[in-house]
UniProtKB/TrEMBL annotation:
Protein name (record): Cytochrome P450 oxidase CYP90B40
Residue ranges that the Swiss-Prot or TrEMBL entry lists as coiled coil: none
InterPro entries the UniProt entry points to: Cyt_P450, Cyt_P450_E_grp-I, Cyt_P450_sf
Sorted UniProt keywords: Brassinosteroid biosynthesis, Heme, Iron, Lipid biosynthesis, Lipid metabolism, Membrane, Metal-binding, Oxidoreductase, Steroid biosynthesis, Transmembrane, Transmembrane helix
Gene Ontology MF term list: heme binding; iron ion binding; monooxygenase activity; oxidoreductase activity, acting on paired donors, with incorporation or reduction of molecular oxygen
Pfam families: p450
Species of provenance: Polygala tenuifolia
Superkingdom of the organism of origin: Eukaryota
Length: 487
């Protein structure tokens, strides 16, 4: 009796000490200001409310106004530090694996797979990253991808009929999907199996971006089903390929990703499937949105279209003279103004608006504490729309990217650089997008043939881009096109 009383009071005292200790530690912490919102839900609903693509959205704007560029909140079921601070964002991305770690919500892992590149960390991430870097290397871009990109751009653009109206977003998706499907698994556009995969993939995508409610009939549930259909398809391709490799009948000179992974890596079947699915996802959704955004922004800036046309006409004429038919890497490098348009589209449109991380140590930054285990959301779009970093950020102004030498005036950017310091549409650090060079190549080559061949107009003012926060044109971005008479 006495013994249990003593034990009881000891436990109580111990609990009290721990409680006081935690309380002291917490009060000593200097968390950023902010509002934790409702229990469990926190502020997630406000955070995910759709907004116009060229803004940061009301939630972000009011929170920054109230609390500053670093604030605390409760999002996706976890206590979270949101950072719209360019310096902290760089710090977070650069310290991947040391102070912070990639940490996407569970639902993403459920659908992209537990071996998806967006989800894996540590050695596994390093190995998969090596594969994707190899697959998207500069040498491959020059020797193989440039040709494939041009082929697929022309395939889509040549199918457009004079004076017709259609969804530019769908056309951009067709382009990037066909390109990835060919480069990853040698699927031909238009073939039955490619079309079936594309259809399945649309259902799959709807689930990636919808709430993870696994009930019959929800988009998430349907997407999980699509996921297994797609994986079965890829697995079938894999088995065919293993057979060919064993028989020594695989073609070695133009290897696709599937071949390369089977021959050069130790990944298990399950890992290869998730890797391929995540590359298809990462390499298709983002760059098609970027192309749609360029089609959307440019008509608001006729002077830019004019300058683009001059740049591409000059190149096309020169090629005609020398009898060349395909674009070369030198042509690509010459498209300087187009590169400015690409950067400006990525800055203004922000295809990826924020990333998911968590602190794996207690971190102090500018006097604020970020406790170990908290989610951290670097909002990489915030710097791109910050008037202190980009002069008149609400203007689509490709010329801001021209080097001072070219335009003979002072840089419009007070920080002195529109450079990699604050501009990070592709993230940064050890998880920097491995497809950034391919994405730019796709955008530039598509724009090249677009402005050479067509004039286009947006036919519906209400057909706009929104951030959900993934970027989408809910009405598809309808355009009407007219062919230019001659090149
Ligand atoms: C305009 C188009 C694109 C944008 C804006 C974009 C943006 C990004 C961003 C911000 C990340 C970092 C994610 C994070 O840190 O959590 C990322 C990662 C990645 N992207 Fe892209 N991306 C684009 C196109 C592509 C393309 C065409 C590919 C080609 C397959 C690709 C493949 C990848 C891969 C594999 C990763 C994961 C890298 C890693 O974890 O090490 N992306 N992308
Ligand atoms: C695959 O595994 C073997 C033996 O386990 C090892 O020697 C080789 O380096 C590994 N290759 C790769 C690409 O990881
Ligand atoms: C576009 O931005 C990148 C940084 O991501 C920079 O290195 C490049 O020079 C910029 N291009 C132009 C034409 O300014």
């Amino acid at each position: 009796m006495t013994a249990s009383l003593v034990l009881c009071s000891l436990t109580f005292i111990l609990a009290l000490i721990i409680f006081i200790f935690i309380k002291r530690k917490q009060t000593k912490l200097n968390l950023p200001p902010g509002n934790m919102g409702w229990p469990f839900l926190g502020e997630t609903i406000g955070y995910l409310r759709p907004y116009s693509v060229t803004t940061l959205g009301e939630f972000m704007e009011t929170h920054i106004a109230r609390y500053g560029r670093i604030y605390k909140s409760h999002l996706f079921g976890e206590p979270t530090i949101v950072s719209a601070d360019a310096g902290l964002n760089r710090f977070i991305l650069q310290n991947e694996g040391k102070l912070f770690e990639c940490s996407y919500p569970k639902s993403i892992g459920g659908i992209l797979g537990k071996w998806s590149m967006l989800v894996v960390v540590g050695d596994m991430h390093r190995d998969m990253r090596m594969i994707s870097i190899n697959f998207l290397s500069h040498a491959r871009l020059r020797s193989q991808l440039l040709r494939e990109v041009e082929k697929h751009a022309l395939l889509v653009l040549n199918s457009w009929e004079e004076d017709s109206t259609f969804s530019a977003q769908d056309e951009a998706k067709k382009f990037t999907f066909n390109l990835m499907a060919e480069h990853i698994m040698s699927l031909d556009p238009g073939e039955l199996e490619t079309e079936k995969l594309k259809k399945e993939y649309v259902t799959f995508m709807k689930g990636v971006i919808s709430p993870p409610l696994n009930f019959p009939g929800t988009p998430y549930r349907k997407a999980l089903k699509s996921r297994s259909t797609i994986l079965k398809f890829i697995e079938g391709k894999m088995e065919e390929r293993v057979q060919l490799i064993q028989e020594g009948k695989d073609s070695t000179e133009e290897e696709d990703l599937l071949n390369w992974v089977l021959k050069h890596s130790n990944l298990s079947t399950e890992q290869i499937l998730d890797l391929i699915l995540s590359l298809l996802f990462a390499g298709h959704e983002t760059s098609s949105v970027a192309i749609a955004l360029a089609i959307y922004f440019l008509p608001g800036c006729p002077r830019a279209i004019q300058q683009l046309r001059e740049e591409h006409l000059a190149i096309a004429r020169e090629k005609k003279k020398s009898g060349e038919t395909e674009l070369t890497w030198e042509d690509y490098k010459k498209m300087e103004f187009t590169h400015c348009v690409v950067n400006e589209t990525l800055r203004y449109g922000n295809v990826v608006r924020f990333l998911h991380r968590k602190a794996i140590k207690d971190v102090r930054y500018k006097g604020y504490d970020i406790p170990c285990g908290w989610k951290v959301l670097p909002v990489i779009s915030a710097a791109h729309l910050d008037p202190l970093l980009f002069d008149q950020p609400q203007h689509f102004d490709p010329w801001r990217w021209q080097s001072d030498a070219n335009r003979g005036s002072i840089s419009s950017c007070p920080s002195g650089s529109t450079g990699s310091n604050t501009f990070m549409p592709f993230g940064g650090g050890p998880r920097l997008c491995t497809g950034s060079e391919l994405a730019k190549l796709e955008m530039v080559v598509f724009i090249h043939h677009l402005v050479l061949n067509y004039q286009w107009e947006l036919i519906d003012e209400t057909d706009q881009a929104f951030a959900y926060p993934y970027v989408d044109f809910p009405r598809g971005l309808s355009i009407r096109v007219q062919r230019h008479l001659s090149v």
